[in-house]
Design a protein that fits this description.
4 helices, alpha/beta, elongated, two-stranded parallel ribbon, about 180 residues
């Protein structure tokens, strides 16, 4: 994987596309970051995303420009939770972290024209990985032994169609008023 690439779930990719479509043009500070993320993304289903990738609702450790390590939950909007718990993807740092693999960096220039290097140190919690673990523990994720839900019917078994009765004025259908 190149330094610029990222791994996004189909849901995360769709959210970023909507954000890009809602940008206010080239002057929007997130427009360039969104374009870079979407252009470099490897899109996977939520069951296929590696556990060391930052997805929405993941709790991550990261640092900016080699500074002090911070822990936040990547969110898709402004949350009404305690200050400092969430890092929305509407913030350049949150957007930079989304889709990174542990140890990967993403560089961008912030609105103040200062270059920032965001490094994903560790994914502490990823909802997709926890979901897979729960399914494995309960025995739900055994696709090789799973029985098909649908039953195929090859023919109607020689059923004969009966013609509709015809009255003196055409078909004998009383119409909706008969109901």
């Amino acid at each position: 994987m190149s330094a610029e690439s990222c791994i996004l779930t189909t849901k995360d990719f769709t959210i970023l596309e909507v954000m890009r479509d809602r940008c206010l043009g080239r002057e929007d500070p997130l427009a360039l970051l969104l374009k870079r993320k979407l252009d470099s993304a490897l899109v996977v289903f939520r069951d296929d995303v590696p556990a060391n990738v930052a997805t929405l609702s993941s709790r991550v450790n990261f640092s900016v420009n080699g500074g002090e390590r911070d822990t936040r939950v990547i969110s898709d909007g402004n949350m009404s939770a305690p200050v400092g718990l969430f890092l929305p993807i509407s913030n350049p740092r949150g957007l930079a972290l989304l889709g990174l693999i542990e140890g990967q960096e993403f560089c961008f220039t912030d609105p103040d024209r200062v270059e920032r290097r965001v490094m994903l140190e560790q994914v502490l919690y990823q909802p997709e990985a926890v979901r897979r673990e729960k399914e494995a523990m309960s025995g739900l994720s055994r696709p090789a032994t799973r029985r098909p839900v649908l039953r195929l019917v090859h023919s109607a078994g020689g059923a004969v169609r009966q013609p509709a009765p015809v009255g003196p004025e055409g078909f004998d259908d009383p119409g909706p008023s008969a109901a």
